[in-house]
Amino acid sequence: MSLLERLDLPSDAHADTPLVVAKRWVQTTIRVTQAHAHKPGQLFGASRGLLSVGTQTGLWVVPAIHAVWIPPDHMHSVRSHGPFEGWGAYVAPHACASLPAQPCMLRVTGLLREAVARAAGWTHDELKPHEVRLAQVIVDEIATAPRAHFDLPMPRDARALRIARELAAHPDDERTLQAWAQWGAMSTRTLTRKFVEETGYGFGAWRQRARVMRAVERLAAGEPVTTVALDLGYGNVSAFIAMFKRTLGVTPGRFFEGDEGGAPALGDGL
């Protein structure tokens, strides 16, 4: 039985259940993983390329130097935007008590990245004492990694959620707040209140957030800035670039020019 298979066992079913199992992936085609859940917690990200991650509570666009934490038994789906190099650290359920209880995006520290890279090279069935210590370092780094804010929280109300999913799929839709409320069989006031209470964003701000995330996905796939801007409903490229820089702190052309081949750190503005 492999180390990863043993992580799926109940914590008391195997005395030598590993604390952490790390993996690396290199894929030249688009990767699509349908919604699923597993017993271990999982931290995963891309060292090259861009990932979109969906959970029951929100959506993330994950540039390099960031990663998404998925606690045990949480449903999630993953899609890459073009070829990518990725990595993941699976954490035994009994070791997840000190880790975030809800899915979230984390800023990956240099120590965490290097520790996972070292652990991904373990090929034997039993961890040696120094490997157990390194596995604990990985758990500690996940626990203390700073949060990053590049998510699209989803409302819980069924009617508002239906509207949010439609807008996330078609962020260029120009229908007004009133038109969306009518489409969702709810009042404008209720729709506005649900978005603020359940996502933390007003309806207009949430829609802009959805557009920025879609823009990042399309830019990562190599589409020209002009095409993306016009397709997302901006009257001119300058307005789109100004909005992008106001939200993320950099222009679209510089977004993927961060340290170590990744994107720059993302602030709380989005």
Automatic annotation (TrEMBL):
Statement: the UniProt record of this protein carries the keyword Repressor: yes
Presence of the UniProt keyword Repressor in the record: yes
All residue ranges annotated as the HTH araC/xylS-type domain in the record: 161-258
InterPro entries: Homeodomain-like_sf (IPR009057), HTH_AraC (IPR018060), HTH_AraC-typ_CS (IPR018062), RmlC_Cupin_sf (IPR011051)
SUPFAM superfamilies attached to this UniProt entry: Homeodomain-like (SSF46689), RmlC-like cupins (SSF51182)
Keywords of this entry: DNA-binding, Repressor, Transcription, Transcription regulation
Database matches in Pfam families: HTH_18
Coiled coil regions, renumbered to chain: none
Gene Ontology molecular functions: DNA-binding transcription factor activity; sequence-specific DNA binding
Identification of the protein by name: AraC family transcriptional regulator
Organism field: Trinickia fusca
